[in-house]
Input
Amino acid sequence: MSAKQPLLDIQDLHASVDGNEILRGVNLTVRPGEVHAIMGPNGSGKSTLAQVLAGHPAYAVTAGSARYDGRDLLDMDPEERAREGLFLAFQYPVSIRGITNSYFLRSAVNAIRKHKGQDPLDPQDFLQVLEDKLTVIGWDDSLMNRAVNEGFSGGEKKRNEILQLAVLEPRLAVLDETDSGLDIDALKTVAEAVNKLRGPDRSFVVVTHYQRLLNYIVPDHVHVLADGRIVKSGGKELALALEEKGYDWLKPAAAGSAA
Amino acid sequence: MTSIETQVLQPYKYGFTTEIDADIVPPGLSEDVIRLISTKKGEPEWMLEWRLKAYRHWLTMKEPRWANVSYAPIDYQAISYYAAPKQLPKVDSLDQVDPKLLETFDKLGIPIAEQKRLAGVAVDAVFDSVSVATTFRAELAKHGVLFCPMSEAIREHPNLVKQYLGTVVPTNDNFFAALNSAVFTDGSFAFIPKGVRCPLELSTYFRINASSTGQFERTLIVAEEGSYVSYLEGCSAPTRDENQLHAAVVELVALDNAQIKYSTIQNWYPGDEAGKGGIYNFVTKRGACRGRNSKISWTQVETGSAITWKYPGCLLQGDGSIGEFYSVAVTNNRQQADTGTKMIHIGKNTRSTIVSKGISAGHGQNTYRGLVKIMKGAESARNYSQCDSMLIGSECGAHTFPYIDVRNSSAIMEHEASTSKIGEDQIFYCKQRGLSAEDAVSMIVNGFCKEVFKELPMEFAVEAQNLLGISLEGSVG
Output
């Protein structure tokens, strides 16, 4: 695949939940190594887009297409998308009691390795991989022997998502409001880790309500989602304009002209 | 949710029937039938009298109906109370065991033939109403440990049996215990002498084979001062449209500083999807911590039976004694379970721990019922109870009835309870990390049960996890 070919190519995507249409014709192209920020007011469909990309069963795609690495993404099961390198950092990660983070993550790594025809990692090998990744992002292993997200603070949950991202090495990482509920120090910690994970073979779609995350994770492209459509796209400076003016100036008129 | 349910609702793997010539007493219950059982077992007169006394008391009792289960009335005259393979082996020579029986236990994963035995586990194999083989007896005898079928113990060790039988669960304790006392056939007897740490795991495997029969096993384990024993119990039955009754009594006695660890994997035939057939499992299990600082632990994994009615408990008589109850109960399809424990604190500084995990799927109904009673003299008693329920699907039910009766104000009681549902979001989260739905369910159920599984001996932990459709890899401990 040449560098110019898109990793993710979304055309006129419509999706609904419980019969309510949330996405009403989204177009988005993400090339390898690019970081795209999706901004927008509450209820604009940002999180729906993230969930639809990951294949959450509660969302029905009613029209349009999404291609991932040249394949029909919508035709793939959620686990296959994950094994093919699509990662979603959840806004609200669930907890699993009795299962350590370390065991969970090793199972995930081995499911992906199996998909690639590789041998599974035994606990020793996995610990080595884990340590290497922790070194890269500069964190300790304090979360690893606790049950998955069980009793984690909001900040710990978000850090745990990024830690999983680091270990699973996806080609496309979708961050769904990873900044929500974080204080400024925690935000910096998470953003710095994400920056260390950026690279020419890894693309990011960063969904956020606030511009402040983008001070730390500087995007190549910024898109504004309103009423289920992307109504404005631009460079990183667009985020600053939004910070200053809010979303209202884009909403009704621009939505009409984009349709 | 269907993939989750099919994962948990595995077909019953032990439903085959062994074709074997059997000696079956015609259905019906009377003093004559009890005399016949006693004669077949070659019992002394005192045992027969004990049975008849229990029977006469049973006639005055009513079947309990307070449990949160419903089933058609049981016709006690339609049950056959004794069934045994015709060619009875001599217990000291396994070569003489009918190959069909060896094959049956092989198929169940309980090899008893010399060369195939499980290392480190002595097995008493009970087929319908009789024990067909007991392994490693000579090895155990070297340490002074007695491990044999109950019927043999009555003949060979009458004084020990007389001294302890019925002292923990009296013959008139409850309806099913009285019935068992009248008609019990086999089960195991274990005696661990003073100061001996039993070198092997002791295990009994109960197999119901004949139709229209009931199984009424009686087990008695006595651990003398300072001894230790770990005992495992497993069971299964053929797939049949009829309901079969299994009414067991288990009594444990622990003297000063003795410890008994009793583990059960209950996998009786649970009935089919529509609730047809299955075992009625009405069991009385109780341990007496008679000695100071003695300890009895019950660990149970209940996956089978159409109806389960079972409350393994501890009488904490000795000062400083400890009772534990760890339970996983699974109800699928139309299964109903009403299970829990009774912890009766009598001595000072007694402690008890209860960890109950109920998993309901299909139309299963799962009830935890537990009693913690602190008697007046039980100074500084402590109890910790934790009851967790997990629901899979939307047609099942979980119920919790914790009874607490405290008569000494120095007691410290803790109770925690939770109910959770395996949800789409949990499965989706796992799938998003690349795991299959099956692995996700396994992982979630496994994690939920972990506190109980880690109490099981390793050989059983494997079986327990397999029963729940769980891949084992590195997840125990």
About this structure: The radius of gyration of chain A is 18 Å. Chain A touches chain B through 33 residues (CB under 8 Å). The mean pLDDT of chain A is 91.
